[in-house]
Write a structure and sequence with these properties.
By secondary structure, the chain is mainly α. The longest helix is centred in the first third of the chain and has 27 residues.
């Protein structure tokens, strides 16, 4: 008599959200590795254009039956600002990885969650206690350990991931103003379209005709980034932002691996130490945020 095979238990909503977020983060790290390789042969402005153009095409293919409906937004100015900010973050990061190791750039960019905490206190007037402020300060110390300003190993381009993190943090704050009543697919549509438009204005000044192989790689880079954003939207539909927040640090592990495999960049002791301080600070601030009493968050702008 055959023994019945046990049926796999379905993943809970939150567990499936975490799984989707981890895949999204891995895709973003892969996109960054491709952009670094391409930026060694082409201007980073051109790589950014290819990334957003490919995402715009992906958006049209996925959302074409509903584009007219999803294009309507109650907050056009906020959608424009937040899309421009995420475009700026991408451009700064792509320019940075053309000059600094992938792991270093990613480690510095990981201060973004700490910047969100600081900006939420300054702009949204959220309550941030002294312990969380100490965690934010420690994270910035970690970034300085990686960047090492004033020393012979310092590169000015190493500051760009910090600027990218600042743009990303402002983008996250702007997204909070949209409220839950804005369709996330509308946000996805605006991010791809506005990024492609901004990049198209810049790319003629930085154009060089790619080979067929590199054109395909540029297309793949954009498709991977767009797919990552799509999976992240699905993840947030299944799990809370607080649950998904720590998954971002998986990207640092992936970036370190791709940097070593494809570019031979092994992080030095100071980079590892700085990254550990940044990740530890971020996890501490996240833990403190989970244990504090819930506070009312501001709704969308009138």
């Amino acid at each position: 008599m055959p023994v019945p095979r046990p049926r796999a238990l379905p993943l809970s909503q939150e567990a499936s959200g975490v799984a989707l977020a981890l895949v999204a983060v891995a895709l973003f790290a892969s996109m960054d590795a491709m952009s670094k390789g391409l930026s060694q042969r082409y201007d980073p402005f051109m790589v950014t254009w290819a990334r957003y153009l490919s995402q715009a095409v992906l958006v049209v293919l996925i959302l074409s039956p509903r584009i007219r409906t999803l294009g309507r937004t109650r907050y056009p100015l906020i959608q424009l600002v937040r899309s421009a900010l995420i475009f700026g973050a991408t451009l700064c990061f792509f320019v940075a990885v053309a000059h600094v190791p992938l792991a270093n750039a990613t480690a510095v960019f990981e201060v973004a969650p700490l910047m969100i905490t600081a900006l939420a206190a300054l702009i949204l007037k959220e309550q941030v206690g002294p312990r969380r402020w100490a965690g934010v300060a420690a994270g910035f110390v970690g970034a300085m350990i990686v960047i090492r300003p004033g020393l012979s190993v310092f590169q000015p381009m190493a500051v760009l991931p910090m600027l990218a993190a600042f743009c990303y943090a402002l983008h996250a704050i702007a997204t909070r103003f949209l409220g839950r009543d804005e369709n996330p697919w509308t946000t996805f549509l605006y991010s791809g379209a506005i990024g492609a438009i901004c990049a198209s204005f810049l790319v003629p000044f930085h154009w060089s005709t790619p080979t067929i192989e590199d054109a395909l790689l540029m297309t793949l880079c954009g498709a991977v980034g767009g797919t990552g954003q799509l999976l992240l939207i699905l993840a947030f539909a299944r799990a809370s932002a607080a649950t998904l927040a720590p998954t971002t640090y998986f990207g640092l592990l992936m970036a370190t691996m791709w940097g070593y495999v494809f570019f031979g960049d092994a992080p030095d002791l100071w980079t590892v130490l700085g990254a550990a301080v940044i990740v530890g600070s971020g996890l501490y601030v996240w833990w403190r945020d989970q244990t504090r009493p819930p506070a009312r968050s501001p709704g969308p702008l009138p």
